[in-house]
Amino acid sequence: MKTKNLVLWSVIVSMTFLSSCGKNNQQSKASDSSITKQKHEPVSKSVNATESEAEICSIKGEDITIYVGPGLKFDKLINQKATEALGETYYANVDYTFKVVVDEEKNGWSKIRVIEPEHLSSTHIGWIPSKNIVRKNKGQAKDEKLDKNSFEIIKTIQKPTVKNYYVLYKLKKVNKDDVIEFMGRFRKEYCSGSSNVNLFDSKAILNLVDKYQLAGKEYIIVADHFIAMSTFDSPELVWWYPFQDINYKDYGGKNWKKEPIK
Predict the structure, then answer these.
(1) Stated pTM of the model
(2) Rounded CA gap, 244 and 260, in Å?
(3) Which residue, 168, 177, 188, 230, shows the most beta carbons closer than 10 Å to its own?
(4) Are 245 and 190 in contact (CB under 8 A)?
(5) What three-state secondary structure class fits 57?
(6) Residue 238 contacts residue 180 (beta carbons within 8 Å)
């Protein structure tokens, strides 16, 4: 009886050993096959990266329409939430206040994913012209300073909680995208706290910049030379010719720098 039990135990041990060897051989073969496959198959570079690894880009311009494919021949991406809420078709777009990552590039177009504002990250995914993507130039200094010949701080007024900057913009060509970039850099270099930045193209308005209750010709003069404004509570936004409004129209202003008010 003891002999039978001893034989049975030897058989079980042998079978267990053989089974283990078989599994190890199969795993080894599978591993070798995987290595061979990796060696001989072309490696596909993934464009997608984790949010921490991806380069965060800015947008140049306003109302940049997002398309479902890389080109104008493709449909515009519908903003489903806005369309459902307002009862008519609205299309998804981005502007200079957005932050995006680029997943793919093709024929002068870039496939973007919005990461700021965060609530649009799941819906605003599509293609825009690559020329509207602002990347960090690798060869460019991280803290490039503004050219001091391009502007002059003509006045500052410190209020209890807010500092007001009145800045003369000296460049002859006033381009909206350049002004938006200027405002952002000015804030980084000069605004340490809550600040309003007001940009003008002439010193002729110096005695009017902090005058309240402007009317008539004085209002028109300021409106015509008041290029842009960035406020302390919405520093990422730039208001283009802010005084060219309904009052400007009523006072007879004619030198519209944006779409005239009807």
Answers:
(1) 0.67
(2) 8
(3) 230
(4) no
(5) strand
(6) yes
